[in-house]
Amino acid sequence: MQVIIVGNGIAGTLAAKTLRETDPEVGIEIFAAEPHLYYPRPNLIEFIAGRLPFDRLFAFPEKWYAQHRLEVHTGTPVEKLVPDEHHVLAAGGRRIPYDVLLLANGASAAPPPIPGAEKRGVFTLRTLGDALALLDYLKEHPRAAVLGGGLLGLEIARALRSRGAEVEVVEFFDYLLPRQLDPAGGALLRREIEKTGIRVRLGTATDEILGGTDVRGLRFKNGLTVEADTVILATGVRPNLGLARDAGLQTDRGVLVDEFLQTSRPRIFAAGDGIQRGDAVYGIIPASFDQARLVAANILGQRKVYEGTVPSNTLKVAGVHLTSVGTVNPQGPGFEEIRLEKPEEGIYKKIVLRNDALVGAIWMGTKTGLSAITRGVSRKIPVDKWKRDLLEETFDFGLL
Predict the structure, then answer these.
(1) How far apart are CA 47 and CA 58, in angstroms?
(2) Residues 211, 195: Cα–Cα separation, whole Å
(3) Among 133, 138, 279, 319, which is most exposed with the fewest C-beta within 10 angstroms?
(4) Within 13 Å, how many C-alpha atoms sit on residue 386's CB side?
(5) pLDDT exceeds 80 at position 285
(6) What pLDDT, in 10s, does the model give residues 328-376?
(7) pTM for the full predicted model
(8) Alpha helices, DSSP H, located in 198-302
(9) Are 155 and 167 in contact (CB under 8 A)?
(10) pLDDT band at 298 (very low <50, low <70, confident <90, very high)
(11) Degrees (nearest 5) of the Cα angle 279, 280, 282?
(12) Whole-number CA gyration radius for the chain
């Protein structure tokens, strides 16, 4: 059997690795638009911060691919899928047949339509090429504004500050990490971030990126302006749907897949940031891990069901450990929220219950009990008899 994988990100590479570990004989070819082998995307942040050298960016050395008989074509994007004839067309017009195709071409940065976004000095961060260009520009342009106070925006801000840049984060919502935190947690995180010298501007929409050919600042919709000569747009991503749509695969906000991660066309599976299962487009690393392993099994003829991934994000900003898992800002009736706040210690905890079962948690400023809480949310463990003690450091987390 010959398997073609489109995309060498986490989903494509991990699926290839799992396929080879499961079946020594299956043929595997990976086509990558980027000219680089697979690197975990979080490594870009550490690279920008100066804490990770270039040669340690990559998950596997080149010889690893040869040892595992994974044929990787870097800098060779697939330009067309031909499902009826079971082949793809790669750059240069090369025709490659397949028995099974895995579409794992991910997502791209989705910058907002801000006037002036075409100016020199405006960046997104999605690829190693983006990171290299940003670092080169930053040498002579150290005043940076990061538009977006989500996970990516805060990670970029931290990395740039480590490089000695002046950094201001501009967030449209009234608190940081609006997908992972609530207002109380966001306020505490802001205080800790500002202690590092990063400025934070909340509840602010950008009207225009100022300057001639080069960036010189920002003007906000409230009329205020700020000087900046480097702007990073960290405002979300958009699944890459062009190949799928052109080939007649069903798409919505992502490539639609069934419970086995199969698309609407036979012999074509999909996994990673570009897929949609039901109403969910995950776009997070844990989901790509889950999907890659499962889709590899299903490509080999198993019938494993993808039951979804509980959203979970962990980061360290300004020395503060933060994990957000499951539903943290519940909507509708039937939920209970319990909090513990110790702002003087930088600690904020919150659990969300539904029918006395754990469905979400925020754990900030401490790691005590974190693995148990994460496990409890993923399994929706009933905690009614412990819920008033669960947030205390002295709680016996072995009970979960």
Answers:
(1) 11
(2) 30
(3) 279
(4) 18
(5) yes
(6) 999 888 899 999 999 888 899 999 999 889 999 999 999 899 999 999 9
(7) 0.92
(8) 242-246, 285-299
(9) no
(10) very high
(11) 165
(12) 22
Strand partners, 302: none
Average pLDDT of every residue of the chain: 94
- Give 122-233's CATH code, choosing from 1.10.4160.10, 3.50.50.60, 2.30.30.40, 3.30.750.24: 3.50.50.60
CA distance 44 to 23: 32
Domain ranges of the chain: 2-108+237-299, 122-233, 319-399
Structural tokens at position 388 = 């008033």
Count CB-CB contacts under 10 A for residue 336.
14
Rounded Cα distance, 292 and 75, in Å: 22
* Residue 298: partners with Cβ closer than 8 Å, 6 or more residues away: 260, 261, 262, 269, 304
Measured distance CA(265)–CA(117) in Å, rounded: 38
List the end-to-end C-alpha distance of the chain, in Å, as a whole number.
44
Fold of 319-399: Enolase-like; domain 1 (3.30.390)
What pLDDT score was predicted for residue 400? 77
For residue 322, what are its two tokens? 């933060």
Name the nearest CA neighbour of 1 among 26, 22, 19, 23: 26
b/e per residue 135-144 (b: at least 16 CB within 10 A) = eebbeebebb
Q: What is the DSSP letter of 55?
A: G
Q: Which two tokens stand for residue 24?
A: 């020594």
Amino acid (one-letter) located at 264: S
- Written as six digits, the tokens of 136 are 């080169």
How far apart are alpha carbons 82 and 243 in whole angstroms?
10
